[in-house]
Structures are given as structure tokens and as C-alpha cells.
Amino acid sequence: MVKVTAYLDSTTENKLKKAAKSSQLSVSKWVAKIIEEKVTTQWSPEVVGLAGSWQDDFPALETIRADMQYDSRGEEL
Length: 77
What we know:
- By secondary structure, the protein is mostly helical.
- The protein is built from four helices and no strands.
- The chain has one domain.
- 49% of the residues lie in helices and 0% in strands.
- α1 crosses α2.
């Protein structure tokens, strides 16, 4: 485990302490939690749970493309 030192002005320090207290965490655990949230590379369970939830509300690709006409060929680059 690594130890981190941060220099904060008194206003920010007070906000930090208040946020940690309202979360019922120590300042150290609150800061560690925020850092973990910012560096994570996975979707949260709430976001993952949304996958496919719009399936009945969105038209099928074939329906979307049914009325489309072919686009003219663009110029060569």
C-alpha cells in the first residue's frame, strides 16, 4: 500500500472532511474510493444493467434502412 500526501487549502480541506463524514468514511478511505472511481476501466453495474433495455423502443436496422436510398459515390481523395 502506498502513502499519498496532498496539500489542500483550508476551504478544500473542510469540504473533504465534510464529504467523508457524510459518507461515513474516514478521509483516507473516502479519498481512496474517489481515486478508485476515477481510474477504473470497467462500467459500473448500473450502466451494464442498461444494456439492451431500449431494445423494444428502437426500430430494427432493417426498418431504419428500408426507406433509405443509395447515396451517390463520393469523389476520390
